[in-house]
Amino acid sequence: GAGVSQSPSNKVTEKGKDVELRCDPISGHTALYWYRQSLGQGLEFLIYFQGNSAPDKSGLPSDRFSAERTGGSVSTLTIQRTQQEDSAVYLCASSPGRGDEKLFFGSGTQLSVL
Amino acid sequence: EDQVTQSPEALRLQEGESSSLNCSYTVSGLRGLFWYRQDPGKGPEFLFTLYSAGEEKEKERLKATLTKKESFLHITAPKPEDSATYLCAVTKGAQKLVFGQGTRLTINP
């Protein structure tokens, strides 16, 4: 596709349920990032992939959060046993990964935990 | 700890009224400073990258400048379509951007 695609665009879940958020990066982009944006807050880094490996996962807030990337393309962010404080917009971004840190963002997944 | 602070939090201008947004940072070993624009319900859209003090970049009505401690985004004769949240971010080259909280800009016709 022409840009970074995220699905679903909106997700409402109950506290304690698991959720999976999907990101399709721009074709050929080797670097992929997940950020979280809470209401009125700046973007909070979660994890960075180069290819299928994650050299920096320092931003994952707890062991309930995990992410994987397969085929150097699609990535899934999984949140287990969701809590109300997990409610936020989860943004995915990709870049060519050649030391170019200009990121291309998707429109995000709005997660609401009731 | 690396910090990025943007001011003001919100700014309302009349169409044609020029102004500046500020981004101050405390980062050791800054490698680059980025400006992004974010419209409601959308992801941030890249505007500029600045790498060294004294550098300037321009795009239409926007000009970004960088010093050793801060960056300014100057908006000249803004139009209503310039209304958005403007985000500043810094990197130390570790493939991780640290973002400020943004300035919400509203341009009234």
Keywords:
heterodimer, A: about 110 residues, mainly beta, 7-stranded mixed β-sheet, globular, B: about 110 residues, 6-stranded mixed β-sheet, 5-stranded antiparallel β-sheet, 11 strands, about 0% helix
General description of the model:
The complex is a heterodimer of chains A (114) and B (109). Chain A is mostly beta strands. In chain A, 0% of the residues lie in helices and 50% in strands. In chain A, the strands form two sheets. In chain A, strands 2, 4, 5, 6, 9, 10 and 11 form a seven-stranded mixed β-sheet that branches. In chain A, strands 1-3-8-7 form a four-stranded antiparallel β-sheet, with no helix packed on it. Chain B is 0% helix and 57% strand. Chain B contains no helices and eleven strands. Chain B is globular, with a radius of gyration of 13 Å. The model of chain B has no long low-confidence stretch (mean pLDDT 93). Chains A and B meet through strand 4, strand 5 and strand 10 of A and strand 5, strand 9 and strand 10 of B.
Brief overview, please?
Chain A is an all-beta fold and about 110 residues long. Chain A has no helices and eleven strands.
Q: Helix- and strand-based class of chain A?
A: mainly beta
Number of strands of chain B: 11
- Overall structural class of chain B, as computed from helix and strand content, comes to mainly beta
Categorize the overall geometry of chain B. Answer: globular
* Count of extended strands of chain A: 11
- In DSSP terms (H or I, runs of 4 or more residues), the helix count of chain B works out at 0
What number is the mean pLDDT of chain B? 93
Beta-strand fraction estimate of chain B = over 45%
Largest sheet of chain B: 6 strands, mixed
What oligomeric state best describes the polypeptide chains here?
Answer: heterodimer
User: What's the main sheet of chain A like?
Assistant: 7 strands, mixed
Return the string of H and E elements of chain B: EEEEEEEEEEE
Shape of chain A: globular
Helix content of chain A: under 10%
Considering residues with a beta carbon less than 8 A from a beta carbon on another chain, report the largest interface and each chain's count. Answer: A-B, 26 and 23 residues
- Flag low-confidence runs of chain A: none
- Tally of contiguous helical segments of chain A: 0
Separation, N- and C-terminal Cα atoms of chain A: 33 Å
Distance between the termini of chain B: 41 Å
